[in-house]
Specification:
The chain is of the alpha/beta class and about 220 residues long. The protein folds into 2 domains: about 10-20 and about 90-220, Rossmann fold; about 20-85. The protein is built from 10 helices and 5 strands. Strands 3-2-1-4-5 form a 5-stranded parallel beta sheet, with helices on both faces. Helix 1 (about 20-35) packs across helix 4 (about 70-85) and helix 5 packs parallel to helix 10. It is globular. The model has no long low-confidence stretch (mean pLDDT about 95). This is HAD family phosphatase. InterPro entries: HAD-like_sf (IPR036412), HAD-SF_hydro_IA (IPR006439), HAD_sf (IPR023214), PGP-like_dom2 (IPR023198).
């Protein structure tokens, strides 16, 4: 049974944890790449999960070659993906609202630590009616090193006024869990597109099927 001591703050990843957006993002990347004649694969898409835009560009350039025109791909992806965000095509993951309701009632601060750039992250959270439910955000364009470096979680803790070691980090990706652990946070993984790698299991990080288990543990 999951046991979570009461945290000073809870820090959430966004894509794949709060929002069921990873599938939409990867489908948008595939559509954009196909339009440019680039050989997109599912494996390439999965390697981008949880990564910052800069790191994604590095991975794509490595896959397609340094001469591949990244800017047209990024522009086409943004057109496709942002239209889907505006259309409300990204649903919430299960038990998000219930967990946020409980944390608010318990007066436990809440922050978001997302690799997504702030402008897009705010638009996605606002479209899902979640933006005002968080006390702070740390975004991919506000740190030098993306996940799995600890920077984004350390910044989120700072902005919510908590010590990293007293925070609970909730993540769906392997790179995100590595970032949270590197920041000395207690972490729980709720897998989405990716299952936990061997090192995540060696860390002893709890792995649960949904945020419901996190809610029950905090209530208990």
């Amino acid at each position: 049974m999951l046991n979570i001591p009461r945290p000073q703050a809870v820090i959430f990843d966004m894509d794949g944890l709060l929002l069921d957006s990873e599938r939409v993002a990867l489908a948008s990347f595939e559509e954009a790449a196909t339009a440019l004649g680039a050989p997109w694969t599912r494996e390439l898409g999965l390697s981008l999960v949880g990564r910052s835009a800069r790191d994604c560009d590095t991975i794509i350039a490595r896959a397609f070659g340094e001469a591949f025109p990244l800017e047209p791909l990024r522009e086409r992806f943004s057109e496709i993906y942002d239209a889907k965000v505006a259309a409300g095509s990204i649903p919430l993951k299960p038990w998000v609202r219930e967990l946020l309701d409980w944390l608010e009632a318990a007066r436990i601060p809440r922050a978001v630590a997302t690799s997504t750039f702030r402008k897009r992250a705010e638009a996605k959270l606002a479209r899902a009616h979640l933006l005002q439910r968080f006390d702070a955000m740390a975004c991919g364009d506000e740190i030098l090193r993306g996940k799995p470096a600890p920077d984004i979680y350390e910044l989120a803790a700072q902005r919510v006024g908590a010590e990293p070691r007293d925070c609970l980090a909730l993540e769906d990706s392997n790179v995100g869990i590595r970032a949270a652990v590197s920041a000395s946070m207690r972490a729980v993984m709720v897998p989405d597109l990716l299952q936990p790698d061997a090192d995540i299991r060696r860390y002893g990080v709890p792995i649960v099927p949904s945020l419901k288990e996190v809610l029950i543990a905090l209530q208990g």
